[in-house]
Write a structure and sequence with these properties.
This protein has helices at residues 46-52, 68-73, 116-127, 236-254, 256-259, 290-301, 321-325, 349-361; strands at 6-8, 14-16, 82-84, 89-96, 100-107, 143-146, 151-157, 170-179, 184-192, 201-204, 211-214, 228-229, 232-233, 304-306, 309-311, 333-338, 365-367, 381-398, 404-407, 411-421, 430-433, 438-443. With 444 residues, it is of the alpha+beta class. It folds into 2 domains: 6-30 and 210-443, Cathepsin B, Chain A, CATH 3.90.70; 46-197, Immunoglobulin-like (Sandwich). Strands 10, 11, 16, 17, 18, 19, 20, 21 and 22 form a 9-stranded antiparallel β-sheet that branches. The radius of gyration is 26 Å and the shape is flat.
Length: 444
């Protein structure tokens, strides 16, 4: 068994050094218990709201298993509406084609309308995606398929020239997603047709400097890469877990006075790194022994080929627990943070908040990201994050002399970036906006 403390030469072996030299320069906070932090008074843009695809208050959204009537009548459910403007394009994720029964767009009245069906038909006539027979059923041809994820989504526009069809300044409606097993998800929208007379402008203070937070000994974190396994690449999920386990193994070997020796069995001296003695240190780059190690994780997680890439179901991301428990001492566990729309790849601030908490505690975090609305899902690893803030308020206007007139209360806006190890051998590692739809970490 190798004892430390040590440092690693790039892709080399451990060499003994002093304990003081093993402390990374960018570690700015001691490990602490994770604490969920709310982004109080944070400004949320329309783009971010739409990216979340959430029309319900966080924590109060009806589960997909909720009955439609219960979801509409239950007093425990609080609904928020996404306000859209005429001419604005809206994209709604509706789920997997094999599980979807129907999608309906329903006008939400105020109780005093004399011809709700007529208004319903006017709404579908304006949107041009649903039937004008009173049912509001979305036409099958309007449901588009994402080729990478096999998910359906609906796109519609409330045209600017349709405002004359309605007698009010706003039109409320819902998108009801019905599944074959009787489940439903409701998303509510409000078309704001009021004349835009005056738009308040924002008065910003300067950004504060960044505060940096990092897992301990981040320089030990390895950068593995995907390789062809069978008919496609081995998958980002298995590579991400291999990097996490490799990091825990490397820091246990190289800085054992700080981290103990309990993780030295995560990578062993057998031909594929999964069995044998604990004396072998995990490499910092993929090699002929790390590749079968990643392939073993691929099989455990049920990763499959999707065109040329390897895809892993979200529900299988924690299947590595038995593998982890068999090689890690202490109380090994895997913690998965998600929300009701994680399965659609929808971002949520609560996931980013938990990610920051895990990093502050000292654990690398695998997260879910995406390139576009419904494609390019990826699972990199977060090892650091940085945060800054600034104050702002909304004012009616600014004079030529620079004086702000009729202003509201000051609020705080936060800017969070995360450092990602992409799992591409170090390529494209770097700082990215902190957005994710799930996070998962191994702890002990």
């Amino acid at each position: 068994m190798v004892h430390g403390p040590f440092i690693l030469e790039p892709c080399g072996v451990c060499h003994k050094t002093s304990r003081q030299d093993s402390v990374p320069l960018d570690r700015t906070r001691k490990r602490s218990e994770p604490k969920y932090e709310e982004e109080t008074d944070q400004e949320v843009t329309t783009e971010q709201v739409l990216a979340d695809a959430s029309n319900h208050s966080a924590g109060l959204m009806p589960d997909l298993g909720a009955n439609l009537e219960e979801a509409l009548t239950s007093t425990s459910n609080v609904y928020n509406e996404i306000v859209i403007d005429p001419g604005e394009t809206v994209t709604v994720a509706v789920g997997e084609e094999s599980k979807l029964k129907a999608v309906h767009i329903k006008y939400i009245g105020f109780g005093n309308e004399t011809d709700v069906t007529g208004i319903q038909n006017k709404l579908c006539s304006a949107l041009e995606v649903c039937a004008t027979d009173g049912t509001g059923k979305v036409k099958q041809k309007e449901l588009q398929t994402d080729p990478d994820l096999e998910l359906l989504f609906l796109e519609f526009v409330f045209p600017e020239n349709a405002t004359g069809l309605f007698d009010t300044d706003d039109v409320d409606f819902s998108v009801e997603i019905h599944t074959k097993d009787g489940k439903v998800l409701i998303r509510r929208y409000d078309v704001d047709m009021a004349p835009k007379i005056q738009t308040r402008i924002k008065h910003y203070k300067s950004w504060s400097s960044f505060s940096y937070y990092s897992i301990p000994d981040e320089y030990l974190f390895p950068d593995y890469t995907q390789h062809i396994y069978g008919k496609c690449y081995v998958g980002c999920g298995p590579v991400a877990w291999a990097m996490v386990f490799g990091y825990l193994d490397r820091r246990s070997h190289c800085v054992s006075l700080q981290h103990g020796t309990g993780s030295q069995g995560l990578y062993r001296n057998g031909p594929d790194g999964t069995y044998g003695l604990n004396s072998q240190v995990a490499p910092c780059r993929s090699d002929t022994r790390m590749e079968p190690y990643i392939e073993n994780l691929n099989r455990i997680m049920g990763t499959y080929c999707s065109d040329s890439g390897g895809a892993t179901k979200l529900r299988r991301m924690d299947d590595v627990l038995s593998f982890y428990k068999a090689r890690q001492t202490g109380k090994p566990r895997v913690v998965l943070d998600k929300w009701v729309l994680s399965f659609l790849g929808m971002y949520h601030e609560s996931i980013a908040s938990w990610t920051r908490a895990r990093v502050r505690e000292g654990w690398p975090v695998i997260i879910g990201t995406k390139k576009t609305w419904f494609s390019g899902f990826h699972a990199p690893v977060v090892t650091k994050y940085r945060r800054r803030s600034r104050r702002y308020r909304r004012c009616l206007y600014k004079t030529k002399k620079g004086k702000w007139i009729l202003c509201g209360k000051w609020k705080t806006q936060y800017d969070n970036d995360m450092y990602l190890h992409q799992g591409w051998g170090g390529s494209r590692n770097g700082w990215y906006p902190m957005k994710s739809f799930f996070s998962i970490a191994a702890k002990y």
